[in-house]
Amino acid sequence: MPLYDLKCPDCQMVSEHIMGVQDQWLIVKCPHCGHGLRRGDHKHYEGMRIQIQGDTVAGGCNYNYYDEELGCQIKNKQHRADEMKKQGLQDYSPNPEYKKFRDEQRYIKKHSKPGDADAAAALKQQQKAAVTKRREDAVDRAFDNAPMPALPEI
């Protein structure tokens, strides 16, 4: 499991916590003052990562890269859209039914206070509901695409 540095908003002390990659909303206590901390609220560790690919443009998008899936050098956003259209491809767009789960999670995160146990439970419940829905849909698709066996004639 990775080691994360979390800064407490109360005592301003930085402490190290071993957390899983999926535990960004897990509440841990500050060892100095006992305040609840969540990795998702403390993104200062994200600033340490440097990611540069080709020419960077405003908004954080990186262009001038070789796209292996398209098989060509991509110069800008419009060039990528043109190449995808030429090859008969389209960008991924999320299922609107799954989008409602994501929007609900974003709303809970935005309107909850750090260390709120009820909000953490609601996020966990939303995540569980989303995973369950995706699994049910995957099973339904598998049954729809499965070949039907030939029934013997009576």
What does the model show?
The protein is of the alpha+beta class and 154 residues long. The chain has three domains: 3-47; 52-86, no CATH class; 96-143. The protein contains three helices and eight strands, in the order ββββββββααα. The chain has helices spanning 77-86, 96-111, 117-145, and strands at 3-7, 14-18, 27-29, 36-38, 55-56, 62-63, 65-67, 72-74. A two-stranded antiparallel sheet has the order 1-2. Strands 3-4 form a two-stranded antiparallel ribbon. The protein is flat and about 70 Å long.
Descriptors:
154 residues; alpha+beta; 3 domains; two-stranded antiparallel sheet; two-stranded antiparallel ribbon; 3 helices; 36% helix; flat
Low-confidence stretches: 44-59
Number of strands: 8
Q: Order of strands across the widest beta sheet?
A: 1-2
| Mean residue pLDDT | 79
Summarize the structure.
This protein is α+β, with helices and mostly antiparallel strands and 154 residues long.
Blueprint of the fold:
Elements: E1 3-7, E2 14-18, E3 27-29, E4 36-38, E5 55-56, E6 62-63, E7 65-67, E8 72-74, H1 77-86, H2 96-111, H3 117-145
Antiparallel strand pairs: 1-2, 3-4, 5-6, 7-8
Helix pairs in contact: 2-3
